[in-house]
Amino acid sequence: MHFRFNKLIKLGFILFGMYFFYACKKDNIVQEEITPYSETPYTLDYPYYFPKMSNIPLDNKLSIERTALGRKLYYDPILSNNGLSCSSCHYQSEAFSLSSTNALPHINLGWNSHFLWNGKIAGTVEDIMKFEVDEFFSTDISKLNASEEYRKEFKKAYNVSNISSKEVTYALAQFFRTLISKDSKFDKFFMHKTNLSSPETKGYVIFNTEKGDCFHCHSLGLFTDNFFHNIGIDSVFDGVNRGRFNYTGNAADMGLFKTPTLRNIEMTAPYMHDGRFKTLEEVVEHYNSGVKLSHSIDPIMTKAGKEFGLRLTSEEKSDLVAFLKTLTDSTFLNNPTFAKP
């Protein structure tokens, strides 16, 4: 009888130990599962003369946690398989472009519906980020899942325990939407906070009248129509110079390229899809005397009186360049919330 009692006591201790062990393990699992998910709303700040940014997916509402995660990913080589990050080709000091390439700058992309020079990717910022993650970088998502730090941050931002490429593209899209340039000298002038110099004012008039005809494609606010044009840089097309035609196969799209924003244009040389122009003066001279005719050229380039270019004087060309430089936004170029965390 005494022997049986001892066995029962031992069995009780074993059962209690097993219960305690599994109870603790269960508690740990619960704790991992309830890693705090936080959704602190993030409000974009842009002026009244910008169009409303309305193409944000309902399942990727802006939050402080998500934009912070996207910012971290932007600067992290973990996205690539060759040690590069988004920031490797897009320097903040160069308006998120790179002076040695023709990379389109990461400026105000939240208003875009087509991306890349030929518009190959259409849709939202999430769509172009999906291309970057899945195709351009071919991101190895397993590396993110192997990181305890990233698992915690994705859990906090998106309430997922297993990171997928969708959450990576969504987080990057959040940060891209915050990259808003809106505080240039021109903006201060438009908001009646400063004055333009005499050359800048003359250049502004040239830009916004038929004399320069810039405003049709680079309209006030975003300084791009986010559309595609053949501006006469070639008359014979091959390879990448075929532009949007390479994507659509439509003859009317031959030589058409996306209109880049002119915001921070002073900082984003070289210019055009192939970087053929090194200075703003060269760009202005193209419109002034270098336009080449082709069957798909934009009508605005050859309308009445433009058969031989803008025919600006040397002073007028200089004034136009002076105005373009008022679109440089030092606040954007130095904003610490855009810098590497």
Derived from helix and strand composition plus strand pairing, the structural class reads mainly alpha
Based on Cα principal axes, name the global outline.
globular
Order of helices and strands: HHEEHHHHHHEHEHHH
Would you identify the regions where 5 or more consecutive residues have pLDDT less than 50? 1-5, 11-33
What oligomeric state is this? Answer: single chain
The whole-number mean of residue pLDDT values reads 91
How many distinct helices?
A: 12
Question: What is the distance, rounded to the nearest whole angstrom, between the alpha carbons of the first and last residues?
Answer: 70 Å
Helical percentage: 25-40%
Strand order of the largest sheet: 1-2
Q: Could you tell me the number of beta strands?
A: 4
Strand content: under 5%
Biggest sheet details: 2 strands, antiparallel
Rounded to the nearest angstrom, the radius of gyration is: 27 Å
